[in-house]
Design a protein that fits this description.
By secondary structure, this protein is mainly alpha-helical. The protein has one domain. Helix content is about 80%, strand content about 0%. The protein has 14 helices and no strands. α4 packs parallel to α11, α6 runs parallel beside α11 and α9 runs parallel beside α13. The longest helix has 28 residues.
Amino acid sequence: MGFINDLIASQPGQVAAVPFAVAFLVTLALGLAGPAGRRVAALGIGAGFLVAYYLIQSGVPQFPPPQMAHKVFYLAAAGLVLGLVLDFAGLTRAGGHIFAILLPIGALWWMRQSQIAAGPGTALVVALAVLFLVSVLVYWRQAATARGSDSMESSSAGLFPAIQLLVVAIGLGGITLLSFSLTNGSLALALSAATGGYLLVSFLAHAVGGRALGYGATGAFGAGGAWLLLLYGSVFVAEAPLHYWLLGIVSLAFAADFVARPVALGAALGRGGVARLVRPLIYGFVVGIPPAAALAYVWFVLGWRLPG
Protein backbone atom coordinates (compact mmCIF):
# COMPACT_ATOMS: atom_id res chain seq x y z
CA MET A 1 0.00 0.00 0.00
CA GLY A 2 2.88 2.35 0.73
CA PHE A 3 4.17 2.01 -2.83
CA ILE A 4 0.72 2.69 -4.29
CA ASN A 5 0.23 5.74 -2.08
CA ASP A 6 3.64 7.08 -3.06
CA LEU A 7 2.85 6.48 -6.73
CA ILE A 8 -0.46 8.32 -6.50
CA ALA A 9 1.22 11.22 -4.74
CA SER A 10 4.01 11.51 -7.31
CA GLN A 11 3.84 13.53 -10.51
CA PRO A 12 4.62 10.54 -12.77
CA GLY A 13 1.87 8.60 -11.04
CA GLN A 14 -0.71 11.36 -11.41
CA VAL A 15 0.19 12.18 -15.00
CA ALA A 16 0.86 8.70 -16.38
CA ALA A 17 0.45 5.61 -14.19
CA VAL A 18 -2.90 6.37 -12.53
CA PRO A 19 -4.85 7.56 -15.61
CA PHE A 20 -3.44 4.65 -17.65
CA ALA A 21 -4.38 2.10 -14.98
CA VAL A 22 -7.87 3.54 -14.41
CA ALA A 23 -8.61 3.64 -18.14
CA PHE A 24 -7.21 0.15 -18.66
CA LEU A 25 -9.26 -1.40 -15.85
CA VAL A 26 -12.51 0.41 -16.71
CA THR A 27 -12.14 -0.43 -20.40
CA LEU A 28 -11.33 -4.06 -19.64
CA ALA A 29 -14.35 -4.38 -17.35
CA LEU A 30 -16.66 -2.85 -19.95
CA GLY A 31 -15.16 -4.97 -22.71
CA LEU A 32 -15.96 -8.10 -20.73
CA ALA A 33 -19.47 -6.91 -19.87
CA GLY A 34 -21.01 -7.80 -23.23
CA PRO A 35 -22.29 -5.71 -26.15
CA ALA A 36 -23.65 -2.89 -23.97
CA GLY A 37 -20.33 -2.47 -22.18
CA ARG A 38 -18.27 -2.69 -25.36
CA ARG A 39 -20.39 0.08 -26.90
CA VAL A 40 -19.30 2.59 -24.23
CA ALA A 41 -15.81 1.25 -23.53
CA ALA A 42 -14.34 4.69 -24.21
CA LEU A 43 -15.75 5.63 -20.81
CA GLY A 44 -12.37 4.41 -19.60
CA ILE A 45 -10.63 7.41 -21.19
CA GLY A 46 -12.94 9.93 -19.57
CA ALA A 47 -12.72 8.17 -16.20
CA GLY A 48 -8.92 8.12 -16.32
CA PHE A 49 -8.79 11.80 -17.24
CA LEU A 50 -11.18 12.92 -14.50
CA VAL A 51 -9.32 10.91 -11.85
CA ALA A 52 -6.05 12.46 -13.03
CA TYR A 53 -7.61 15.93 -12.88
CA TYR A 54 -8.71 15.25 -9.31
CA LEU A 55 -5.16 14.27 -8.33
CA ILE A 56 -3.31 16.97 -10.26
CA GLN A 57 -5.60 19.76 -9.12
CA SER A 58 -5.95 18.41 -5.57
CA GLY A 59 -9.66 17.74 -5.63
CA VAL A 60 -12.88 18.63 -7.40
CA PRO A 61 -13.15 22.38 -8.07
CA GLN A 62 -15.84 24.30 -6.25
CA PHE A 63 -18.99 25.13 -8.18
CA PRO A 64 -19.41 27.55 -9.78
CA PRO A 65 -15.74 27.30 -10.68
CA PRO A 66 -13.82 30.53 -10.01
CA GLN A 67 -11.17 30.00 -12.68
CA MET A 68 -11.17 28.99 -16.32
CA ALA A 69 -9.01 25.93 -15.61
CA HIS A 70 -11.56 24.70 -13.07
CA LYS A 71 -14.32 24.81 -15.66
CA VAL A 72 -12.50 22.12 -17.64
CA PHE A 73 -13.44 19.50 -15.05
CA TYR A 74 -17.18 20.18 -15.22
CA LEU A 75 -17.24 20.58 -18.99
CA ALA A 76 -15.30 17.33 -19.45
CA ALA A 77 -17.65 15.50 -17.09
CA ALA A 78 -20.69 16.92 -18.91
CA GLY A 79 -19.29 15.81 -22.28
CA LEU A 80 -18.69 12.30 -20.93
CA VAL A 81 -22.22 12.02 -19.56
CA LEU A 82 -23.67 13.37 -22.80
CA GLY A 83 -21.74 10.82 -24.84
CA LEU A 84 -22.94 7.97 -22.64
CA VAL A 85 -26.55 9.08 -22.96
CA LEU A 86 -26.33 9.36 -26.75
CA ASP A 87 -24.69 5.94 -27.12
CA PHE A 88 -27.13 4.16 -24.81
CA ALA A 89 -30.11 5.89 -26.45
CA GLY A 90 -28.97 4.92 -29.94
CA LEU A 91 -28.62 8.58 -30.91
CA THR A 92 -24.88 8.57 -31.54
CA ARG A 93 -25.10 9.80 -35.11
CA ALA A 94 -28.08 12.16 -34.94
CA GLY A 95 -27.13 13.61 -31.56
CA GLY A 96 -23.51 13.88 -32.59
CA HIS A 97 -24.36 16.18 -35.48
CA ILE A 98 -26.24 18.54 -33.17
CA PHE A 99 -23.93 18.59 -30.18
CA ALA A 100 -20.78 18.84 -32.28
CA ILE A 101 -21.98 22.40 -32.87
CA LEU A 102 -23.70 23.17 -29.57
CA LEU A 103 -20.97 21.89 -27.25
CA PRO A 104 -18.16 24.09 -28.60
CA ILE A 105 -20.42 27.14 -28.54
CA GLY A 106 -21.44 26.53 -24.94
CA ALA A 107 -17.94 25.63 -23.75
CA LEU A 108 -16.24 28.60 -25.39
CA TRP A 109 -18.89 30.99 -24.08
CA TRP A 110 -18.58 29.70 -20.51
CA MET A 111 -14.78 29.69 -20.52
CA ARG A 112 -14.61 33.33 -21.71
CA GLN A 113 -17.91 34.51 -20.26
CA SER A 114 -16.60 37.61 -18.49
CA GLN A 115 -14.64 38.82 -21.52
CA ILE A 116 -17.60 38.27 -23.83
CA ALA A 117 -19.93 40.11 -21.44
CA ALA A 118 -17.51 43.04 -21.31
CA GLY A 119 -17.46 43.31 -25.09
CA PRO A 120 -15.01 41.03 -26.91
CA GLY A 121 -12.19 42.58 -28.88
CA THR A 122 -11.21 41.56 -32.38
CA ALA A 123 -8.49 39.17 -31.17
CA LEU A 124 -10.93 37.26 -28.94
CA VAL A 125 -13.57 37.07 -31.66
CA VAL A 126 -11.02 35.64 -34.10
CA ALA A 127 -9.75 33.16 -31.50
CA LEU A 128 -13.27 31.98 -30.68
CA ALA A 129 -14.17 31.59 -34.35
CA VAL A 130 -11.01 29.60 -35.13
CA LEU A 131 -11.48 27.36 -32.10
CA PHE A 132 -15.08 26.70 -33.09
CA LEU A 133 -14.02 25.64 -36.58
CA VAL A 134 -11.27 23.42 -35.15
CA SER A 135 -13.87 21.85 -32.84
CA VAL A 136 -16.14 20.99 -35.74
CA LEU A 137 -13.20 19.42 -37.58
CA VAL A 138 -12.21 17.39 -34.51
CA TYR A 139 -15.70 16.02 -33.87
CA TRP A 140 -16.20 15.33 -37.59
CA ARG A 141 -13.00 13.31 -37.90
CA GLN A 142 -13.50 11.57 -34.55
CA ALA A 143 -16.82 10.27 -35.87
CA ALA A 144 -16.08 9.78 -39.56
CA THR A 145 -12.71 8.08 -39.15
CA ALA A 146 -14.24 4.91 -37.68
CA ARG A 147 -16.85 4.46 -40.39
CA GLY A 148 -16.97 0.99 -41.90
CA SER A 149 -15.16 -0.61 -38.96
CA ASP A 150 -17.77 -3.37 -38.83
CA SER A 151 -16.42 -4.84 -42.09
CA MET A 152 -13.36 -7.07 -42.29
CA GLU A 153 -11.57 -4.80 -44.77
CA SER A 154 -11.76 -1.70 -42.56
CA SER A 155 -12.08 -3.21 -39.08
CA SER A 156 -8.89 -1.42 -38.01
CA ALA A 157 -10.72 1.90 -38.41
CA GLY A 158 -12.38 1.26 -35.05
CA LEU A 159 -9.03 2.10 -33.46
CA PHE A 160 -8.37 5.25 -35.47
CA PRO A 161 -10.27 7.83 -33.33
CA ALA A 162 -8.36 6.79 -30.21
CA ILE A 163 -5.07 6.88 -32.12
CA GLN A 164 -5.93 10.42 -33.24
CA LEU A 165 -6.52 11.41 -29.64
CA LEU A 166 -3.35 9.74 -28.40
CA VAL A 167 -1.03 11.62 -30.77
CA VAL A 168 -2.67 15.03 -30.34
CA ALA A 169 -2.76 14.69 -26.55
CA ILE A 170 0.95 13.85 -26.49
CA GLY A 171 1.64 16.78 -28.82
CA LEU A 172 -0.45 19.26 -26.84
CA GLY A 173 0.94 18.04 -23.54
CA GLY A 174 4.55 18.18 -24.66
CA ILE A 175 4.32 21.66 -26.15
CA THR A 176 2.49 23.26 -23.24
CA LEU A 177 4.56 21.47 -20.60
CA LEU A 178 7.82 22.53 -22.23
CA SER A 179 6.81 26.12 -22.84
CA PHE A 180 4.07 27.93 -21.01
CA SER A 181 1.66 25.84 -18.88
CA LEU A 182 2.58 23.07 -16.45
CA THR A 183 -1.07 22.47 -15.56
CA ASN A 184 -2.39 22.15 -19.11
CA GLY A 185 0.63 20.10 -20.10
CA SER A 186 0.16 17.70 -17.21
CA LEU A 187 -3.55 17.29 -17.91
CA ALA A 188 -2.96 16.70 -21.62
CA LEU A 189 -0.35 14.04 -20.91
CA ALA A 190 -2.73 12.45 -18.41
CA LEU A 191 -5.34 12.34 -21.17
CA SER A 192 -2.81 10.66 -23.46
CA ALA A 193 -2.05 8.08 -20.75
CA ALA A 194 -5.76 7.37 -20.27
CA THR A 195 -6.16 7.02 -24.03
CA GLY A 196 -3.26 4.59 -24.04
CA GLY A 197 -4.97 2.45 -21.40
CA TYR A 198 -8.15 2.25 -23.47
CA LEU A 199 -6.25 1.75 -26.71
CA LEU A 200 -4.24 -1.18 -25.36
CA VAL A 201 -7.39 -3.12 -24.44
CA SER A 202 -9.15 -2.19 -27.68
CA PHE A 203 -6.09 -3.08 -29.77
CA LEU A 204 -5.86 -6.51 -28.12
CA ALA A 205 -9.58 -7.11 -28.66
CA HIS A 206 -9.16 -6.18 -32.32
CA ALA A 207 -6.03 -8.28 -32.78
CA VAL A 208 -7.68 -11.36 -31.29
CA GLY A 209 -11.27 -11.03 -32.42
CA GLY A 210 -11.14 -8.63 -35.35
CA ARG A 211 -13.37 -6.03 -33.70
CA ALA A 212 -12.20 -3.03 -31.69
CA LEU A 213 -14.14 -1.84 -28.66
CA GLY A 214 -16.67 0.94 -29.04
CA TYR A 215 -15.65 4.60 -29.18
CA GLY A 216 -18.80 6.40 -30.33
CA ALA A 217 -20.16 9.55 -28.74
CA THR A 218 -18.69 8.54 -25.38
CA GLY A 219 -15.23 8.77 -26.89
CA ALA A 220 -15.87 11.75 -29.15
CA PHE A 221 -17.48 13.99 -26.51
CA GLY A 222 -15.98 12.51 -23.36
CA ALA A 223 -12.39 12.10 -24.60
CA GLY A 224 -12.04 14.16 -27.78
CA GLY A 225 -14.06 16.88 -26.06
CA ALA A 226 -11.64 16.86 -23.11
CA TRP A 227 -8.76 17.43 -25.52
CA LEU A 228 -10.59 20.36 -27.08
CA LEU A 229 -11.10 21.92 -23.64
CA LEU A 230 -7.38 21.68 -22.97
CA LEU A 231 -6.70 23.20 -26.39
CA TYR A 232 -9.05 26.10 -25.57
CA GLY A 233 -7.28 26.67 -22.26
CA SER A 234 -3.85 26.51 -23.91
CA VAL A 235 -4.82 29.08 -26.54
CA PHE A 236 -6.21 31.44 -23.89
CA VAL A 237 -3.06 31.29 -21.73
CA ALA A 238 -0.48 31.17 -24.54
CA GLU A 239 2.25 33.76 -24.17
CA ALA A 240 3.61 34.24 -27.71
CA PRO A 241 2.34 34.08 -31.31
CA LEU A 242 4.60 31.07 -31.90
CA HIS A 243 2.56 29.10 -29.36
CA TYR A 244 -0.55 29.52 -31.51
CA TRP A 245 1.27 28.21 -34.55
CA LEU A 246 2.55 25.18 -32.66
CA LEU A 247 -0.91 24.38 -31.28
CA GLY A 248 -2.32 24.74 -34.78
CA ILE A 249 0.26 22.31 -36.17
CA VAL A 250 -0.69 19.73 -33.54
CA SER A 251 -4.35 20.14 -34.52
CA LEU A 252 -3.43 19.33 -38.13
CA ALA A 253 -3.35 15.68 -37.08
CA PHE A 254 -7.11 15.63 -37.59
CA ALA A 255 -6.69 16.96 -41.12
CA ALA A 256 -3.93 14.39 -41.69
CA ASP A 257 -6.61 11.76 -41.14
CA PHE A 258 -7.79 12.40 -44.70
CA VAL A 259 -4.48 10.93 -45.88
CA ALA A 260 -3.73 8.51 -43.05
CA ARG A 261 -7.01 6.60 -43.25
CA PRO A 262 -6.83 5.59 -46.93
CA VAL A 263 -3.10 4.88 -46.66
CA ALA A 264 -3.58 2.56 -43.68
CA LEU A 265 -6.67 0.79 -45.00
CA GLY A 266 -5.31 0.59 -48.56
CA ALA A 267 -2.00 -1.03 -47.66
CA ALA A 268 -1.64 -4.45 -49.31
CA LEU A 269 -1.64 -6.48 -46.11
CA GLY A 270 -4.55 -8.84 -46.70
CA ARG A 271 -7.23 -9.52 -44.10
CA GLY A 272 -5.42 -11.66 -41.53
CA GLY A 273 -3.86 -11.02 -38.16
CA VAL A 274 -0.84 -9.21 -39.60
CA ALA A 275 -3.11 -6.64 -41.22
CA ARG A 276 -4.99 -6.10 -37.95
CA LEU A 277 -1.70 -5.46 -36.18
CA VAL A 278 -0.02 -3.28 -38.80
CA ARG A 279 -2.79 -1.04 -40.17
CA PRO A 280 -3.26 0.86 -36.87
CA LEU A 281 0.50 1.40 -36.70
CA ILE A 282 0.57 2.83 -40.22
CA TYR A 283 -2.33 5.11 -39.37
CA GLY A 284 -0.67 6.29 -36.16
CA PHE A 285 2.60 7.03 -37.95
CA VAL A 286 0.96 9.19 -40.63
CA VAL A 287 -1.51 11.01 -38.41
CA GLY A 288 1.21 11.61 -35.84
CA ILE A 289 3.48 13.53 -38.21
CA PRO A 290 2.13 17.05 -37.37
CA PRO A 291 2.36 16.64 -33.55
CA ALA A 292 5.77 15.02 -33.88
CA ALA A 293 7.01 17.89 -36.04
CA ALA A 294 5.77 20.48 -33.54
CA LEU A 295 7.39 18.66 -30.63
CA ALA A 296 10.65 18.25 -32.50
CA TYR A 297 10.75 21.97 -33.24
CA VAL A 298 10.13 22.85 -29.61
CA TRP A 299 12.74 20.45 -28.30
CA PHE A 300 15.56 20.63 -30.82
CA VAL A 301 15.22 24.13 -32.29
CA LEU A 302 13.90 26.25 -29.43
CA GLY A 303 15.46 24.19 -26.68
CA TRP A 304 12.60 24.98 -24.31
CA ARG A 305 12.49 23.38 -20.90
CA LEU A 306 9.92 23.11 -18.13
CA PRO A 307 8.58 26.58 -17.21
CA GLY A 308 9.28 27.64 -13.66
